[in-house]
Structure formats: C-alpha cells, structure tokens
C-alpha cells in the first residue's frame, strides 16, 4: 500500500540530489585535467644516430644487373626454313662456329640463273669483239684497195701531166684522170671515216656489254653469298644468350634467331628511382657490389626517358671482373653525387624523404626520455641527410620509424 510522503521529507531528498550532482561535476573536471600517460618504449627497439659534422658524401643507391657491352644479334639473312639448330642458350661458341642450317630452294635457282646470265653476257662480249675484228679487217681490206687505186690514179695523173706538157696527151684525157684521182681521194677519206666510226661503235657496244657482264658477276656473287649465308655462323666468339627459334620454323629477313654476347666485357645498368636521378651525371664514380666483391666504375650514359618509375644508368666497370661475373647477374650500385664539406648531418630518419621540415624525437641528455623537435633537413644521400636547423652536433636522434607516436610529444625510454 502507498505511504504518503509528509512535507518534512522533501528538503532532505533535494539535499541528497544536490550533493550527488556536485560530486559528479567535480569528478568530470578532475578527469579532464589529468594528462594522458606518457608511452614507454624499450630503448633497444629504437634505432638512433648522433648528429655529426664533417664531409658528407651524397650518394644514390640503386639495384641493377650486369649486361654485356657487345651483343651480336643473329638475324635471318633471307626467307628460309630452320633445318637444324646447332646451339642452345648458354653455349660457348668460337668465332665462325655454325649456329643454324637454313634452306630456301628458290635461292639456289636464282643463283643458277644468275650464273647462266653472266655466262651469256660474257659470250656476247667475245662475239662483239670478233665481229669488231672482222669488220675492221674487211674495212681495212677495202680501204687498201682504194689506196692502191688512188696511188695508181695519182701516178697516171702525174704521167699524163708530163705528157701533156710535151703536147703528146690531150687536155681532156688529162682532166678525166684528174677527176678520177679526186674521186678516189674522197672515197679513201670516206672509208677511213667509216672505219673509225665503226670501230667506235663496236668499242661502245663491247664496253656496255662488258659492264652488263660485270653487273651480272656482282649478282652471281650476291646470290652465292645468300646461299652460303644459309649456313649461319657467328662472326665473333662469345656465349649464346638466347635461341628464339625452333627447327622447321619459317623465318623472314630480320627475324632474331639468337644473341651472342662477349662475356669478358660487361657493364652495369642501374635502375635509379626517378626522384633521385636528377642529380646523376656522366662521369660520376660508382661502387658496384657483386656478392662479396666490390667493383669500381663510372657513369657513362643516362637514359633520356623514365621507364616504370626509374631511369637506366649505364656504368663502365674498371679492373678485372671476378670469376662469377656473368650477364644478367643482379648487383647493387652506389653513385657518388657530390661531397659536401663541413656540414651537419645524420643518418637519414625513416620518415624523411628529402629536403623538408620534419619532426623527430631527440633523446634528452639524461637518456630517460625523448622529446619531439622540429628539424629542417637539406640535401639527401642514400644513408645520410644534411641538417640545416633544429639540431646540434652530438645530439642523438631517433631515426627508426616512430609513426605510432605521431600524436605524442614525449616518450619514456626504459
């Protein structure tokens, strides 16, 4: 059954409610004023480095591989079928070694036709020469007869001239012999001109035919070379890098059948990230790490374009290559960009990517805590970075990844 409240109990209930409200408000204010606990980190889990002063060597590191300096591409010289392959990838071949046997019957037919055409042209040259000799003999024989007649007419004219002077021969008879001699003189001159013209004509025809024969001779040599080229040989010694055809396959001129590389002379090709390639220049020294061997070299060529986010840098190697060096072997290279004298630098922090302002943790002198500081970084190297402002010589910075403490200004080291 309900018990009615008397008016005397209301002040007591209000006082209790007021006390509870005041208590809750005080608790909220107290909790809001308490700072969050400072995180504690095991010191051995952090990577630290001291700020140094001195010469800083700017370097760019990149991966790459060894490639031959000279690679000979073996291509198909003409349309043909691969009858037999004598090599496989990795084989060592000597200069002139037989690589492939090709076949193309039409080349043999063309070579035989060229030889027949050359023989016919040679025979025609000899025929023209004989015709020229016969025409010359015939013409000179006729000219000789004319010369005899001319000589006789001249003698008769002289004799009749003497007799006419003595009044023995009439003038008409003497005029006839003079006209005869003049006609013979003209015939002799025409015959000589005809012989000369005829000789020039034959010489021109013979010369033209001889040139035609020489052209056919060149064609015979070309056809012979094409037939001989079906026995495909390597022009230089080396190691076969790749065999990209199979027996029975039909190839056309220019198809790559294999590659032969000289393994005694190699170069390194480094794939430098495009963000770091802008400072790379021809002539810079390079250190190449090859297994447990270190080689030295020099930048000799830089690719003009970016491929898949990197720039190919060609390095000429110096000194003798180790016995294990071979094409396509992976290497690591360090390109020396420049040397910066008397500057502050530190091992590059994980979160710093280049010239920028960034906050890192600096270990306090006591070694018990690390406080976040703002540092202005300068020029970047493969392992180190220049410090422009925000740190002093001897400071110890945390250079490992501290992104999980991004919202903290201080950490405790234990």
What's the structural blueprint in terms of helices and strands?
Elements: H1 10-33, E1 40-41, E2 48-50, E3 52-68, E4 71-75, E5 80-85, E6 92-93, E7 98-103, H2 105-165, H3 171-228, E8 231-233, E9 238-243, E10 250-251, E11 256-261, E12 266-273, E13 285-290, E14 293-302, E15 310-318, E16 330-347, E17 357-363, E18 369-380, E19 384-389, E20 396-398, E21 410-413
Parallel strand pairs: 1-21
Antiparallel strand pairs: 2-20, 3-12, 3-16, 4-11, 5-7, 5-10, 6-9, 7-8, 9-11, 12-15, 13-14, 13-16, 14-15, 16-19, 17-18, 18-19, 18-21
Question: What would your notes on this structure say?
Answer:
It is a single chain. It contains 3 helices and 21 strands. It has 414 residues and is of the alpha+beta class. The strands form 4 sheets. Strands 3-12-15-14-13-16 form a 6-stranded antiparallel β-barrel. A 4-stranded antiparallel β-sheet has the order 4-11-9-6, with no helix packed on it. It has a 4-stranded antiparallel β-sheet with strand order 8-7-5-10, with no helix packed on it. The longest helix has 61 residues. About 2% of the residues have low confidence.
């Amino acid at each position: 059954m309900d018990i009615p409240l008397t008016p005397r109990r209301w002040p007591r209930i209000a006082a209790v409610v007021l006390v509870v409200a005041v208590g809750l408000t005080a608790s909220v204010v107290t909790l809001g004023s308490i700072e969050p606990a400072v995180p504690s980190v095991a010191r051995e889990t952090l990577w630290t480095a001291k700020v140094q002063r001195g010469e800083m060597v700017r370097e760019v590191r990149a991966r790459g591989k060894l490639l031959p300096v000279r690679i000979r591409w073996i291509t198909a010289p003409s349309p043909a079928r691969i009858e037999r392959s004598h090599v496989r990838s990795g084989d060592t071949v000597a200069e002139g070694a037989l690589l492939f046997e090709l076949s193309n019957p039409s080349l043999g037919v063309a070579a035989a036709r060229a030889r027949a055409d050359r023989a016919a042209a040679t025979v025609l040259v000899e025929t023209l020469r004989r015709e020229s000799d016969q025409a010359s003999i015939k013409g000179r024989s006729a000219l000789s007869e004319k010369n005899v007649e001319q000589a006789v007419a001249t003698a008769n004219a002289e004799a009749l001239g003497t007799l006419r002077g003595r009044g023995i021969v009439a003038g008409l008879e003497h005029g006839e012999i003079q006209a005869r001699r003049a006609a013979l003189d003209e015939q002799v001159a025409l015959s000589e001109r005809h012989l000369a013209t005829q000789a020039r004509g034959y010489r021109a025809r013979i010369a033209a035919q001889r040139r035609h024969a020489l052209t056919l001779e060149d064609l015979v040599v070309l056809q012979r070379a094409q037939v001989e080229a079906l026995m495909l040989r390597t022009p230089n010694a080396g190691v076969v890098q790749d065999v990209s055809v199979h027996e029975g396959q039909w190839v056309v001129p220019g198809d790559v059948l294999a590659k032969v590389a000289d393994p005694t002379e190699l170069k390194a090709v480094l794939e430098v990230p495009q963000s770091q390639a802008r400072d790379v220049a021809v002539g810079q020294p390079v250190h190449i790490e090859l297994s447990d061997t270190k080689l030295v070299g020099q930048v000799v060529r830089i690719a003009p374009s970016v491929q898949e986010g990197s720039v190919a840098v060609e390095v000429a190697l110096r000194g003798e290559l180790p016995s294990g060096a071979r094409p396509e072997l992976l290497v690591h290279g360090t390109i020396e960009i420049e040397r910066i004298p008397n500057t502050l630098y530190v091992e590059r922090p994980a979160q710093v990517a280049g010239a920028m302002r960034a906050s890192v943790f600096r270990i306090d002198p006591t070694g018990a805590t690390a406080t976040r500081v703002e540092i202005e970084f300068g020029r970047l190297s493969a392992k180190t970075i220049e410090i422009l402002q925000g740190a002093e010589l001897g400071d110890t910075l945390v250079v490992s990844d501290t992104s999980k403490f991004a919202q903290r200004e201080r950490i405790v080291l234990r």
